[in-house]
Amino acid sequence: MRHVLLINPAAGKSNRTAELTRAAASVFARRTEPWEILSTAYPGHARALAREIAARGEETIVYVCGGDGTLGEAADGLAGRKACALAPVPLGTGNDFVRYFGTDAPERFYALAALADGVTRPIDLLRVNGRVCINIASAGFDAAVCARMPMYKRLPLVSGSAAYKLALAHGFFTAVKNRFSFEIDGVSAEAADYVFAVAANGSFYGGGFHAAPRARLADGLIDLVRIPSMPRSQMLRMVGAYRRGEHLERYGWIRFTRCRSVRFLSEEPIGMNLDGEIVPMCDPLITVEPGALRLRVPAALADKI
User: Fold this and answer.
1) Residue 277: active-site member
2) Are residues 32 and 142 in the same domain?
3) Does residue 146 or residue 159 have the better pLDDT?
4) CA-to-CA distance for 8 and 21, rounded, in angstroms?
């Protein structure tokens, strides 16, 4: 077994390459197995490096050290590669994908020894107009917030959480009504106004919002959550329940469906939020690919898949 640390040095608040290198030397020296460190240098590089690793054909655990965007890129590069397993090592500000495994999951996944001694399980992936999505694809208000965040992050003295709040405030006044229709498993649904719609493989996004509390990573299904347009006052009352994952039980007007495919339809191109990356698309089709990725997790968390 080969171990490869794929590190995004720009993830999180500081470069943790030196810290991870020391941890890897300690863990893998005891295992007497080959290991190496690769670093990303530009957006999309994790995808390219993951494909290069997979092309070697060796049994490999790829420890993806970065945020959700880096994880999504690496998942794209490793999709369908049975010799490789993806091990998330969360370094980002949100770390939403691993929240599926519990509130303490980021700390547990950060422990390289626990991942090296862990277990590998197949999970599903979403395919969105050919692009791989490991966690959640969404459109509407939340995608508009995500699109605005980088602009606010560049401002002096603005942290990641502050940037999210500023983007949220902007979206609250500009992006709460979005006209969509859908084809769900090939059946058309009439157009309506929505705040946003979420197609989920995982459970959390947006820095801790529990958007899809019923989602499972290996059930072969998409959890589709559609939030109809509403007055802003009602939206403010809903946001706490949405963050806690209580919205499906509390609000009967939220539209929840499990499906194997869904197409978002709009008269204008849609800015799709794919694992935190905004990608403009025309009438995006989202499908689920059961068991398309091998995921490495600490042994104590394997029963959650």
Assistant:
1) yes
2) no
3) 146
4) 13
**What would the DSSP string read from start to end of 244-298?**
HT-HHHH-TTSEEEEESEEEEE-SS-EEEEETTEEEEESS-EEEEEEEEEEEEE-
Q: How does residue 188 score in pLDDT terms, banded at 50, 70 and 90? A: very high
pLDDT at 245 over 60: yes
Q: Give helix then strand counts, H and E, for the chain.
A: 10, 15
Inter-CA distances, 153 with 33, 56, 68, 140, 219, Å: 40, 38, 17, 21, 36
Query: What does the longest C-alpha to C-alpha distance in the chain come to?
Result: 61
Output the pLDDT for position 170: 58
- Count the domains in the chain: 2
Model pTM greater than 0.85?
yes
What range does the domain containing 18 cover? 2-117
SS3 161: helix
pLDDT interval class at 233 (50, 70, 90):
confident
| 299, two tokens | 């042994």
- The pLDDT assigned to 148 comes to 63
Distance CA 301, CA 305 (A): 8
In angstroms, rounded to a whole number, what is the distance separating the alpha carbons of residues 303 and 305?
5
Q: What is the pLDDT of residue 176?
A: 67
Does residue 122 form part of some domain? no
Catalytic residue among 183, 246, 277, 289: 277
How crowded is the C-beta side of 49, counted as CA atoms within 13 Å? Answer: 26
| Co-location of 143 and 274 in the same domain | yes
CB 264 within 8 A of CB 139: yes
Question: Is 49 among the domain residues?
Answer: yes
**Residue 148, H or E segment:** helix 141-153
- How do 270-274 and 277-281 pair as beta strands? antiparallel
